[in-house]
Amino acid sequence: MIKPDAVANGHIGSILNDIIAGGFKIVALKYIKLTPESAGNFYAVHKERPFYADLVKFMTSGPIVAAILEKENAVEDFRKLIGATDPKKADEGTIRNKYAESIEANAVHGSDSDENAEIEGNFYFSQFERF
Ligand code: CMP
Question: Which residue windows are coiled coil (predicted)?
Fold first, then answer.
């Protein structure tokens, strides 16, 4: 996902460019606004965390871009491309280093395992929306 901060700050094009330049194929893509219920479901694993309510509020504050990306070793390589969750700790040149504002408004989300990539891809896209 490209999160509401990066969308509002005009970074959709630059982030998609970095993703494509990083060797990822875009399999599915959409521009949508989450509802509190859908954002809550997406981040349900974080339900007990102190930042959960604020995260749901932030993720519904504006439109986002959702995508399914394909590449050999995609999960690990995408996490390298985006950098650490906290942009202050993200390596120079990573997407979060370049475009994120804070640990919450951190520009992008990437799945943390192949299993979660499957679940999160299914959350946004039907079989007719993948190419
Ligand atoms: P993301 O990769 O989307 O997965 C969960 C999100 O929770 C994470 O990026 C951050 O935006 C957010 N997050 C994680 N830790 C914190 C924290 N300590 N404070 C606020 N938000 C956090």
Answer: none
CATH number at residue 80: 3.30.70.141
Asked if ipTM goes beyond 0.85, one says: yes
What is the C-alpha to C-alpha distance for residues 78 and 51, in angstroms, rounded to an integer?
24
Which residue of 41, 58, 106 sits with most ligand 1 atoms within 8 Å of its CB, as the best mutation to test the pocket?
106
Q: Is 46 a catalytic residue?
A: no
Closest residue to atom 6 of ligand 1, CA basis: 104
For 26, the token pair is: 């875009």
Return the pLDDT at 102.
98
Q: Are 34 and 25 in contact (CB under 8 A)?
A: no
Nearest to 121 by CA among 61, 23, 42, 54: 42
Full residue range of the structural domain in which residue 73 is found: 4-129
Which residues have C-beta atoms less than 6 Å from ligand 1?
A: 46, 51, 55, 85, 103-104, 106, 109
